[in-house]
């Protein structure tokens, strides 16, 4: 039985062309890019070329890109690095952020910072008016994700950025789930920091970057050498950076075609469920094209995921299944409330490379049959 992978929002397979770049360069680029000899300069050129690709993909300057170990480090660098500059004050975030942001903010609360967690409506959307009302004179950081990893809701980042133009607060967005799927421009968005991870767009794990707007200061988290313009110590992983750049290049060139493809996949699921008379509701609005989160009344999510896995389908839920109990997703709780059934009967399908209309149709049919069998 061949598996059908529908969990690309969690992590994505490495593109074959990216694998080729990575494996080819691993034995070749062993020089330290900070070294001035020829071996080091070869690594430096490849690193600079990768940085140029990253910058161009978001309308930034090369000097504004800090290469990191991934999205979590990039988020933490933006949040803790900004907080360290102020020493005290107020932060605004949302209740549906990735835990790389939420837990960073919770840690800062233990250190005496004040954090406001904005609510969302039932579509998973933040109201710009709520951001405006939460702003205070001592607000030094606003961190709102661009696209939600569980329900796919795309937030009004440009509108929030416009609101903050007349405020001293620094604006960070976690774009890990949206990068490579949506066309992004940091100047149009009005953000000061933007976090990205390679493994969400068919690149290798363990590498990402943080965009830092020129003129916006940041305290480093790591201390050592003077890499990344003294902002992030540690010898750069040049082969991984080159592989990441290849993944970015592919994503930029195929974005429109992939969007159309993923929207067709969503329609296949909707039509299949409708034809099989499976009651369902989509969670989230204004969604990323590759994320489909469905609430199916009457199912138990833990049993559903186990049965899907046995049928060869890899999908996920925002719920944490442990020892027969289900803890609802914090995103769905924020959208519907702690007692809502959506928190316990929702499943996420997310699409990417390696899928076809045939395999998605097969998965949708199998999923509908399992749902029909499990609905109480």
UniProtKB/TrEMBL annotation:
It comes from the Bacteria. GO terms for molecular function: cysteine desulfurase activity; iron-sulfur cluster binding; metal ion binding. InterPro entries: Aminotrans_V_dom (IPR000192), Aminotrans_V_PyrdxlP_BS (IPR020578), Cysteine_dSase (IPR016454), PyrdxlP-dep_Trfase (IPR015424), PyrdxlP-dep_Trfase_major (IPR015421), PyrdxlP-dep_Trfase_small (IPR015422). The keyword Lipid metabolism does not apply. It is an enzyme of class 2 (transferase). Its cofactor is pyridoxal 5'-phosphate. It catalyses: (sulfur carrier)-H + L-cysteine = (sulfur carrier)-SH + L-alanine. Residues 4-360 form the Aminotransferase class V domain. Its EC number is 2.8.1.7. Keywords: Iron, Iron-sulfur, Metal-binding, Pyridoxal phosphate, Transferase. Belongs to the class-V pyridoxal-phosphate-dependent aminotransferase family. NifS/IscS subfamily. NCBIfam families: PRK02948.1. This is cysteine desulfurase. It comes from Planococcus lenghuensis. The lineage of its organism: Bacteria, Bacillati, Bacillota, Bacilli, Bacillales.
